[in-house]
Amino acid sequence: MFKPKLFTVLPELTREQLGRDIVSGILVGIVALPLAIAFAIASGVSPEKGLISAVVGGFLISLLGGSRVQIGGPTGAFIVILYGIVQQYGVNGLMIATIMAGVILLIMGFSQLGSLIKFIPYPVIVGFTSGIAIIIFSSEVKDFLGLQMASVPADFIEKWAAYFKALPTASPETIMVGAAALMIIIFWPRISRKIPGPLIALIVTTLAVRMLHLPVDTIETRFGDISASIPAPSFPSLDIATIRHLIMPATTIAMLGAIEALLSAVVADGMIGARHKSNMELVAEGVANIVSPLFGGIPVTGAIARTATNVKNGGRTPIAGIVHALTLLAIMLLFGSWAKLIPMPTLAAILIVVAWNMSEHHVFRQLLKSPKSDVAVLLTTFGLTVIFDLTIAIEVGMLLSVILFMKRMASMSNVGVITSELKDAEDEDDPNAIVTRSIPDGVDVFEISGPFFFGAASKFKDAMHVVGKAPSIRILRMRKVMSIDATGLNMLRELVKDCRKSGTKLILSGVHAQPLFAMQQYGLADEIGEENIFGNIDDALDHARKMLGLPAQGRPEGFVASVEREKKNKAGSIIL
User: Fold this and answer.
1) Which CA distances in Å does 544 have to 477, 516, 531, 559?
2) What is the phi/psi pair of residue 157, to 5°?
3) Contact by Cβ (8 Å): 146, 163
4) What is the tens place of the pLDDT at every residue in 371-423?
5) Based on the number of CB atoms within 10 Å of its own CB, is 224 exposed (0-12), middle (13-18) or buried (19 or more)?
6) What is the DSSP letter of 230?
7) Backbone phi, then psi, for 496, in 5-degree steps?
8) Distance CA 55, CA 72 (A)
9) What are the distances in angstroms from CA 264 to CA 202, 267, 269, 456, 526?
10) For the whole prediction, is pTM greater than 0.85?
11) Percent of the chain residues past pLDDT 70, beyond the cut
């Protein structure tokens, strides 16, 4: 359980896979560069601290983590809480809070609480992330418009009142640079997805400001020179009073880090057909957050978009994550001093796009159609996050999570499913593992892991918007989804619409009785086409081969049924 994934995959590593991991790691390192700088500045610290965090934290998460492909580093989820800590307790207080969060994550991992994270209701997670997205966007208005303000109020309402008051001081040159960066980030993926749009925006706008001598704030004018080296480790000064005040903020950092890391790991599992060790992942997150601040870094966790980029570029072992960290280190040492020329509105544009992706506006709207209890949880966590304080939102959100968890456990009759989801072991003897099947070119297979974590499907869909070309056929495995509710059905309908827009054919496999009946009642079975719904992965793959004009391979020898109706009728056809 506590053996890092790196050491379990090394014996099976081939030279070809090593090459793919190295290439993927380099590409992800380039993607992570502008994000690490932007997240650091938005958190209230100097830009090099973001790079240090991505290097040190990203290296340790890949070295010690429980996922094959997880990429670690600073993320947007931390910005709100970190900025508040820096304003109130300074950088030293942030270092203490980060180390405390790392200790909490270690305790969670060694106490084997990793598997319980996935039972946090999705409305709670969406409420947090959507609220954080609104706050991140609000924090970037000043730099995007070039407003002349002595200070920006921390309170959400007061902040916007101050913005409107300072609107006449907006800088046309700053708006022009920010708008240009925003357009490049939005439209560059139509040209190439291999080279990240934020990097292109950063290079183009930096050159434009430099060559045209535009009166636009840069990192240099705001922070001065930035260090192009990693400092020697140092321990923060401690006092009991500060530690006492930082207990709740540190807990908030730990909870956000755990939720985002394990959500990212589950999405990655579905993309590569593997299973991560959730408790080992939390231990790695804990170690990374203890060590990172010793070098001046900020909190780190698993990053969904960077992890998806790793998968789509061929990364399949933690070596890709290690190479990503080394790539960032090389960039920092060789070109770090040039980073001071980056315009502030460009970084604001990058974070505005991050906030938009985090907002999950489509999921938010869908959840408003859910049962009243889910809507109440969603709006409560969202409102508390935006209007009051993220720490309070975490406290109330976790309380609501416990209440809803107990309610759902009481109504859930399949104890076996719950038990299997609580286990933290790999499916070593899984006869239906996707790695034992031949996947035709143009076909993607994604697996939903458990009935209570259907939010992974939404995250997967969002990640696919960021990286990679849409496949010809996408197979969604549902063998572990014993039940589905209105939220899950809404997510699935959105995925169906998304596939239709991109010209991707959707096939479902391993569909159990309750989800199948629910889809028929909801009208989804007709939208997908009952001819595209199967009880096992082998029939689904043969259907995909038929659509591609390839010969069928049939069920393998020793075929093991995935659903009850097949266990009763192995030799017969699938009856829907």
Assistant:
1) 13, 20, 11, 19
2) -70, -45
3) no
4) 777 788 889 989 998 888 777 887 787 787 777 766 655 554 444 444 455 55
5) exposed
6) P
7) -60, -45
8) 9
9) 26, 5, 9, 8, 31
10) no
11) 89
